[in-house]
Amino acid sequence: MNLSGSTVVITGAGSGIGLATAELVARRGARVVLTDRSADAVRPHAERIAELTGAETGFRALDVTDGAAVENVMGSVGTIDHLFTCASGSVIAPFDELTEAQVRQFFEVKWWGQYRCLRAALPHMPKDTGSVTLVSGYLYRKVDPGYFAFAAVNGAVEAAVKSLAMELAPLRVNAIAPGPTDTHAHLMNPDEHRAYRDEIAGRLPVGRPGTAEEVAHAAAYLMENPFTTGTTLDVDGGKR
Ligand SMILES: NC(=O)c1ccc[n+]([C@@H]2O[C@H](COP(=O)([O-])OP(=O)(O)OC[C@H]3O[C@@H](n4cnc5c(N)ncnc54)[C@H](OP(=O)(O)O)[C@@H]3O)[C@@H](O)[C@H]2O)c1
């Protein structure tokens, strides 16, 4: 199966892995709809990708914590061949320093956001040819201190895909589990960024963090391969 002529909806597409995937699937001939918290976060990218690839692109403001907005947006696209749910916040602190409100807010975006988007997209997806790619992350099976909330959400996502792949078949449902991926350089000064890369380099067999484009490549594989369902694909530079 190739993506030509299909429609791909991506949440959290204003940056990082979601954005890189939007560009890649557009290059492969898909119509891509980029969504993120504000229209301003995705409009320029949708325009640039359309210009670059000649593909039809769309964009929507979509805060995945807003159930009514999720329903409206998923219902406004037409047929959704492939859904990729990248929207996420971040919460990093030792367990006993995190408040319940912080953990709940993290779950509200990364867990309930993915749940809501799938529920709302489902009636618009072709079951026999469609796919859903949820996002987990290495921090469930390959833990690091300070990332309890990531471990918990990622574990839930990975458990859910196995069940959903059976229940929603023939719709395919997979998850992708990125390893440390260099998507936040814009939030660091050059020294911090260098220290981040050096730290990751020492811990990964590939000797560097991943790129958003490398994870996007795996996301496109999960959309395209009709014999892959119920799996979590590690794209993690060999993280153990
Ligand atoms: N990068 C890594 O090392 C890594 C490793 C393992 C797993 N992952 C997972 O991969 C996914 C993508 O990560 P990334 O590195 O590409 O991060 P990213 O660049 O921060 O992308 C996440 C996007 O989601 C948006 N977002 C946040 N809250 C939202 C909401 N309520 N509704 C809609 N969009 C919202 C963010 O917008 P704002 O910028 O406005 O917040 C951002 O554009 C996440 O699930 C992450 O946990 C990443």
Automatic annotation (TrEMBL):
Organism domain of life: Bacteria
Family of the protein in this entry: Belongs to the short-chain dehydrogenases/reductases (SDR) family.
SUPFAM superfamilies for the chain: NAD(P)-binding Rossmann-fold domains
Domain Ketoreductase as annotated: residue spans: 6-183
Entry keyword set: Oxidoreductase
Name of the molecule in the record: SDR family oxidoreductase
Alphabetized InterPro entries for the sequence: KR_dom, NAD(P)-bd_dom_sf, SDR_DHRS6-like, SDR_fam
Presence of the UniProt keyword Oxidoreductase in the record: yes
CDD domains registered for this protein in UniProt: SDR_c
